[in-house]
Model the fold of this input.
Amino acid sequence: MAPAAPFQFRVEARSGNARAGLLETPHGPVHTPAFMPVGTHGAVKAMTPEQVAATGAEMILANTYHLALRPGEGTVEKLGGLHRFVSWPGPILTDSGGFQVFSLPHKEISDRGVRFKNEVTGDAMELTPERSIEIQNVLGADVIMAFDECTPFPADEKLAAAGVRRTLAWMERCAAAHRRADQALFGIVQGSVYEALRERCASELVAMDLPGYAIGGVSVGEGHELLCRVTGFTAPMLPAAKPRYLMGVGMPEDLLAAIGFGMDLFDCVIPTRFARSAAVFTARGRIRLTNRRYRRDAYPIDVSCDCSACAGGFSRAYLHHLFAANEILSAILCSIHNVRFYERLVQNAREAIRAGRYEDWQRAFLAGYVRETAGD
Done:
């Protein structure tokens, strides 16, 4: 009997366009829709790997650009590869470094790649499709991303078209440079807000028969309505039998809308970034624990939450005190809670899809959820 392929994906249930499925990887399964906590430097901020796993997260994300700068992919390889280096036994996705490089000042973009200054040493550096894939092959993540041109927002159609042209050319170079059968290389659909450009990019990527596909360029400031519009018309362009990844998104209402459009994988820094500034998510909306109203509040962050911060007896008043005292524990407990909130959100979405009632569940959740509460 031939060995099983290292990557398999199957859709197990549908509710409207929403899908519940299973992504099999060399380091274990991922139940979709799935939210991947972001560990840019190989660590989810303010959380240990055990704490991340306890939230229900099955897959995490790390950043190619930052790990190449420090400690360097060669060091990671010598120390046993990325999974061993960060002590995460489950699946890992690495992004290509493209978003980070295109966010840098004074960069030089050409068809060859991007030249920029190393933000650690100040030395001149270049990141090309071949170099991005080389770094990711050495790091050893389960899913790796193609090096693409992340179009800024707003962008006129001419600029967006140039980004699509480069993205497609670079995808071919990424595929040619890819050397590991135990890593799935995903392509990225660009095209800004222009449906014809998205369709062109998607159709040419789909023709390459890649293991999975991502929608990029929808977390660069376009807002919820445009995000929904772009994701809504792009998702159906992607193969139904392959995993679909919406990059860098986002707020709870963004995730739920995208799940409804048929997206499967998500990542965002919001849960831990907001936690460090005392902003926490609850079933009734987002609150900020540094607000004076919470200094004598004996309730947990969210009475419906089972995370170790809420179930562990830590009150809003205590967390208010920790932030006022600048104690590190404030960020730890709120990060645990926020990541668990996101993991519960996608878990409940999966259950609603399997029950055939995703749209009703989504509507009921949003009816009781306030995007920004008073005093936030």
Notes: The mean pLDDT is 95. DSSP finds 15 helices and 16 strands in the chain. The radius of gyration is 20 Å. The longest strand covers residues 8-15.
